[in-house]
Amino acid sequence: MIDLFKSELQRFRLWTIAAAVVHAGILGFLTRLVDLAQQPLQVYQVFSVAYAVSGTLLGLYQMGSYRRPNQWLSLLHRPMHRLRIAAALGGAGAVLLFVAMALPIALVALYQDTMTARVVDLRHWMLPVAAWLIGLIGYTAGAYAMVANRRHSFAVVVLPVLLMFAQASGVMMLAVQLSILALLVVLVAIAFRPDPVAPPRSFAAVVLTALPVQVGAYFLIWMLGFAVEMTWTLSGTHPLNMPVPPKGGYIEAERAQGKDILLSGIADSRDPDAALWREQIALSDVVTRYPLRSLPRRGELTNVAPMEFDDAEHRVRWVFTHDGMRFVGYGTLDGRARGVLGAGPAQAAFPAPTLQYDDGYLFNANAAYQYDSEQQRIFERVRLPQGEVMASPPAPAGDNVLALSDRAAYFYPGREAANGLDRMQPLLRVPMPAAVGNLSRVDMIELLDGYLVSFTYTWGVWSSELQQPFQQVLRVDGEGRVHQVARRALQVDLPPAYPARIWWLSPVLRTLCLGAQDLYAAPDPLRAPPQPVPTGMVWLALAGCLASLLGAIWVSARQSHSPRERWAWVLLCGVVGLPALVSLWLMYPRREPLPVPAASTHAAIA
After folding, report:
1. Beta-carbon neighbour count of residue 244 at 10 Å?
2. Residue 96 host element (H or E)
3. Is residue 402 within 8 Å of 427, Cβ to Cβ?
4. What secondary structure letter does DSSP report for 460?
5. What is the rounded distance in angstroms from the CA atom of residue 90 to the CA atom of residue 510?
6. How many angstroms separate the CA atoms of 379 and 348, rounded?
């Protein structure tokens, strides 16, 4: 085993050294231009895809070179257990990926921590581990795709793809990566045998092998729906591509200008002031706000946005550190340390990771702040009530300032915001009609005595998580009293079965995928739970399960199964739906008919 491990290291040593040098050179060059630790999420995703693809290519090439029939038999007929052979090959691949991926990142982090004043937190020291795990996930996925049955091994790609949708952060994200890697290692161990084409035999092996195949088939069938969209687009009937979207639909509501959405919202209102409001809307400036979809979390490996801001007057860049929960400054010209900034005169630690917003405010999940360049201090301006989190930081709204929490809209005095640095108290509080996770936009105008506010809920229609989009318009007077002016239901603009196909194709797999997406993740107050699907989609899902059950009876009768195994598959197909039927067809070849002896044939003819 050790000899095989060493031979694999020697086999790829030159390629690994070259990859490590190129990797370190790219990181070193980029770190001279920008602070890699403060890049937005998209930059991390690009590097992650590169690591996953590199690991996949190594797994495909390494296992592919042994997968040829003669070499495969020679490899597995060594005087040691097949799993020890797999461990030697996989262990060598892990060492190679560590040298090529993790080591250069660790060296760059060490340089930035010891030779510069830039911030390097504990979360940044976890990046080499995360990159290595991503490379290993790609490697094991490539290895499995090469050694397992080619009819279904391609479906293993759904496991690395889960990393793009996982909601966990920090150490918990490493736990997600380790869980995916462990599952892939088990799959490789199952397939690493003399006859990898043969179906697995044990119950556990069948379940573990069938799971990615079913999920892969589920997403493949779901993606085939885009062919329908292509047909709509080419024919010019797709609602998203029509010059004028359907009247009264959610697409029209999302595209509409602020004045148009307010006018549409009160078009059928019977309020005696509705005519006056229409005139005011035409003459007023409409303020539109879009809620945030995520907030920074302490210890997360990536950044929602760069957690830094510049003081141009003093030529200082302030960078937030998750370890100290304060801002650390360094000169933009000389790169030397410039001290530490906390919240308020006491320089207290911030309650949550804090970053800058477009309108100059700093914010986190609990509060909003302003930086005073003259005093070089950060002052707390807005503090949300206990239990609420920031959904949109303060920004000008007419003569006042508007901020959104996950439960309400708050109006703060604009004069106090412009002329002071003390904490502001809200003038008005407008409760939200529904969950902020489905809120797509807030539009408002300032009246002579209060505000006219429109809440439009369309976020989640495309993914079938929101079944009943709507718009609600509220009137808020100067005393803070709120009453509903109008509420209108918005059309979905698409046939109900199309956006809901992600559910009715397999309710079981949909639930499983949502659970995998939230694995080890903390609750997110800015997300809304999916709404129940219409009754018609439930019947469609039941019809799909029934068709899958009947199809499994027909398909399994033409395959080699024991009676218990066959009816277990039939039951599984009836519960899971069409993706399970596809996995049954892919995992088990059709039973070959027995040849009829020639003598019996002559006798029958005679």
Report:
1. 7
2. helix 82-97
3. no
4. T
5. 32
6. 11
Q: Are strands 362-363 and 408-412 parallel, antiparallel or unpaired?
A: unpaired
Q: Quick: pLDDT tens for 532-555.
A: 999 999 999 999 999 999 999 999
pTM: 0.90
Residues recorded for the chain: 606
Q: Which helix (H) or strand (E) holds 452?
A: strand 450-457
Strand 355-356, strand 428-431: pairing: unpaired
Tell me the angle at which helices 535-556 and 563-576 cross, rounded to the nearest 10 degrees: 160
Q: Quick check: 164 and 45 in contact, CB under 8 A?
A: yes
Cβ neighbours for 583, distance < 8 A, ≥ 6 positions apart? 152, 210, 213, 214, 217
Structure token pair of residue 538: 């439930």
Q: Which residues on neighbouring strands pair with residue 318, listed in sequence order?
A: 309, 329
Whether 500 contacts 461, CB under 8 Å: no
Residue-wise pLDDT tens digits, 184-235: 999 999 988 877 778 888 888 889 999 999 999 999 888 887 777 777 777 7
Residue pair 529/560 in contact (Cβ under 8 Å)? The answer is: no
Question: In a 10 Å sphere around its CB, with 0-12 CB exposed, 13-18 middle and 19+ buried, how is residue 534 labelled?
Answer: middle
Alpha-carbon span 427 to 423, nearest angstrom: 13
Exposure on the CB side of residue 415, measured as CA atoms within 13 A: 1
